[in-house]
From TrEMBL:
Cofactor(s) the record lists: FAD; heme b
Presence of the UniProt keyword Transmembrane helix in the record: no
UniProt-listed CDD domains: FHb-globin, flavohem_like_fad_nad_binding
Family annotation (NCBIfam families): PRK13289.1 (NF009805)
SUPFAM superfamilies in the record: Ferredoxin reductase-like, C-terminal NADP-linked domain, Globin-like, Riboflavin synthase domain-like
Protein name, entry field: Flavohemoprotein
UniProt KW keywords: Detoxification, Dioxygenase, FAD, Flavoprotein, Heme, Iron, Metal-binding, NAD, NADP, Oxidoreductase
Record EC number: 1.14.12.17
Organism: Cladophialophora psammophila CBS 110553
C-alpha cells in the first residue's frame, strides 16, 4: 500500500520495479475479541436509528477521516465522494452488517466482493483502526447525546469483528497473489504497448510489464486496478477495469469507456486521462488481477448466457474468448445492448467468433439504428432487451447467467431471469461502483 509518505511527486521510475516500498502485514492476526450477545442486541436495536442518519454519518466520516489522514485520498474515488455515492454505499453496507450481525453467513458474497476490491487497492490491516476510530467518532459527533458509552462500546466491538473478517480474507488474497507465478502485491509499472479505438467511446489499452517479467494467470471476468496521478487534486486515483481479453501470459488488455459525465455527475477524470494523455509507450501503475466475478471454464459442459449493456461487455469478451478457445463444446448465448452502431465496440470480433463457432449464438440490441446498419449483421433487435421475448434462446437447461452493465440494468435483468424461473444461484453479477445489483 502506498501512502502519502511513499508517494512523492508524480515522477515516474523512482520506485524500483514499480513495486511499493511497504507491503501489507503478514503477521498472524491478533486474538479476536468475542462479540457478546449483549453487544449484538445493542447493535441490532440501534441500527434502525443510525440507519435513519446513515448518509449524514458516513459523509461526516469521510470528511473527518480524509482530513485527519490525507494519504488515504490516494485510495478513495474522489468522484464517488463528490456525488455522495460512496457515503451512501458505506451506510448501506454498515447497516446490512448490523442487521445480520447474528447471521454473518448472509454477508459472505458482499465480504468477498469488497475484499477483492480492497486488495486491488492495497488496503492494509493497519488502516482498519483508522477507519474504526473515525467511524465511531462520527457516530457520536453526528448523533450527540443520543449515543451513550454502552452503545459506542457495542459498535466498537462489532466493527472490530467485521475488520477482523476482512483482514483474514484479504491476508489470504494477498498471499495467493504474491506466491502465484508472475504475481505481486501493490503496484507494478506497465507500459501501453498498443492503444486501439474500438468505438466512438471505447479504447482498448494493451498493457505489458515494464520489468519484462511474467504475468499471473487470471480468470475471465476478473479486473485490474490502474492508478494515475491527478495534478488538479494532488493525489493518485485508482480505478478498476475488467480484463477484456483472454489470458495469454504476455499482456493485459482493458477497454475503457470515456466518461463525458452527465450532470450532476462530473466527467470521469481517470478515463479522460487514459484517453487523452496516455499515448502508446506511456507507463502507469497496475495491480495484480482480482475479482470474484469470473467464469470457471474447466470441468463443465453447461451452457453459458452472457448479458451485457454498454461497456459492460468487457468481461464478457474475456469469457467468450476463453470459452471458444478452451471449452468449444459449451453452448454460449451472447446478449448485448448498446445505444447505436457508433458505440458498439468490437462488433467485428464478435462477428468472427460467430462465423467460426457454431455453438455461439447472439442477440444484439440497438436502441436506435442508422442508414447502412444491417439487421442480422450489425444488430438483431431494435429497442431494449426484453428477456421474455427471447426466452427460447436464453432459457437453456442447466445454464449459468452472467450480467454486467449499469446497476439498474443488472437489477432489471436479474429479476427478469428469476421471473422466468432461473435459480438465483445461477445468476452472477459484476459491480464496480458504489451499489449492489
Amino acid at each position: 500500500m502506498l501512502n502519502s509518505t511513499q508517494v512523492p511527486a508524480p515522477v515516474r521510475g523512482d520506485e524500483p520495479d514499480g513495486l511499493p516500498a511497504v507491503k501489507p502485514s503478514r503477521s498472524p492476526p491478533a486474538q479476536r475479541p468475542e462479540l457478546s450477545l449483549e453487544h449484538q442486541e445493542i447493535v441490532k436495536s440501534t441500527a434502525p436509528v443510525l440507519a435513519e442518519h446513515g448518509t449524514a454519518i458516513t459523509s461526516h466520516f469521510y470528511k473527518r477521516m480524509l482530513g485527519n489522514h490525507p494519504e488515504l485520498r490516494n485510495i478513495f474515488n474522489s468522484a464517488h465522494q463528490s456525488t455522495g455515492t460512496q457515503p451512501a454505499a458505506l451506510a448501506s453496507a454498515v447497516w446490512a452488517y448490523a442487521a445480520n450481525i447474528d447471521n454473518l453467513g448472509a454477508l459472505t458474497s458482499a465480504v468477498s466482493r469488497i475484499a477483492h476490491k480492497h486488495v486491488s487497492l492495497g488496503v492494509t490491516p493497519e488502516q482498519y483502526p483508522i477507519v474504526g476510530e473515525n467511524l465511531l467518532a462520527s457516530i457520536k459527533e453526528v448523533l450527540g447525546d443520543a449515543i451513550n458509552q454502552p452503545i459506542l462500546d457495542a459498535w466498537a466491538a462489532a466493527y472490530q469483528q467485521l475488520a477482523d473478517i476482512f483482514i483474514d480474507v484479504e491476508r489470504d488474497l494477498y498471499g495467493k497473489a504474491e506466491h502465484s507465478p508472475g504475481g505481486w502485491t501493490g503496484w507494478r509499472k506497465f507500459r501501453v504497448a498498443r492503444k486501439v479505438p474500438e468505438s466512438d467511446e471505447i479504447v482498448s489499452f494493451y498493457l505489458e510489464p515494464v520489468d519484462g517479467g511474467p504475468l499471473p494467470a487470471f480468470k475471465p471476468g476478473q479486473y485490474i486496478s490502474v492508478r494515475v496521478f491527478l495534478p488538479e487534486l494532488g493525489v493518485y486515483q485508482p480505478r478498476q477495469y475488467s480484463l477484456s481479453d483472454t489470458d495469454d501470459g504476455n499482456h493485459f488488455r482493458i477497454s475503457v469507456k470515456r466518461d463525458a459525465g452527465i450532470s450532476p455527475a462530473p466527467p470521469g477524470r481517470v478515463s479522460n486521462i487514459l484517453h487523452e494523455n496516455l499515448p502508446e509507450g506511456a507507463e502507469l501503475d497496475v495491480s495484480n488481477p482480482f475479482g470474484d466475478f469470473f467464469l470457471d471454464v474447466a470441468g463443465s459442459d453447461e451452457p453459458v448466457v452472457l448479458i451485457s449493456g454498454g461497456v459492460g461487455l468487457t468481461p464478457m469478451l474475456s469469457m467468450l474468448g476463453t470459452l471458444v478457445e478452451r471449452a468449444p463444446s459449451r453452448p454460449v448465448v451472447f446478449v448485448h445492448a448498446v445505444r447505436n452502431g457508433k458505440v458498439h465496440a468490437m462488433k467485428d470480433y464478435l462477428a468472427r467468433i460467430m462465423a467460426e463457432n457454431p455453438q455461439v449464438s447472439r442477440a444484439i440490441y440497438y436502441e436506435e439504428t442508422s442508414d447502412g446498419e444491417r439487421e442480422g449483421v450489425d444488430y438483431d433487435f431494435v429497442g431494449r432487451i426484453v428477456l421474455e421475448d427471447i426466452k427460447d434462446k436464453v432459457l437453456l437447461p442447466g445454464a449459468s447467467y452472467y450480467l454486467c452493465g449499469p446497476i439498474p440494468f443488472m437489477r432489471l435483468h436479474r429479476k427478469a431471469l428469476e421471473d422466468l424461473g432461473v435459480p438465483p444461484e445461477r445468476i452472477h453479477t459484476e459491480v464496480f461502483g458504489s451499489g449492489v445489483a
